[in-house]
Amino acid sequence: MVRFCFSALDTQSSANAGRRAMLDLIFDPFVQTGLLALIGGVLTRLAFRKHRIGGLIGQWAFFVCLTGLLLYHGIIPYEPGPPASSLQRIFIGLAKIIWWLNAAWSLIGMVRVFLTFERKPREGRLLQDLVVGVIYIGALLSVIAYVFNGPVGTLIATSGVFAIILGLALQSTLSDVFSGVALNLSRPYGIGDWLVLSSGIEGRVVETNWRATHLLNGTNDLVIVPNSDLAKARLTNLSNPDRSHGVTLTVRFRPSTEPVRIMEVMQTVLLSSNTILATPQPGVQVTALDANAVELELSFSVLDMTVAGKAKSEILDLVYRHAKATGLFLAPQGEGLGIGWGPSNKTDHVPATRTTQLRLLDAIALFSSLTEDEKEVLAASMTRRTFRKDEILAKQGEVLKSLMILRSGVAVIKRRESEMESELTRLAPGNFFGEGGLLTGAGEPGTVQALTFVVVYEITQEGLAKLMRDRPTIAEELGVLLARRTAQASHLHESGPTRTTMEIVPGLVARIRHLFEL
Question: What pLDDT score was predicted for residue 4?
Answer without folding.
Answer: 43
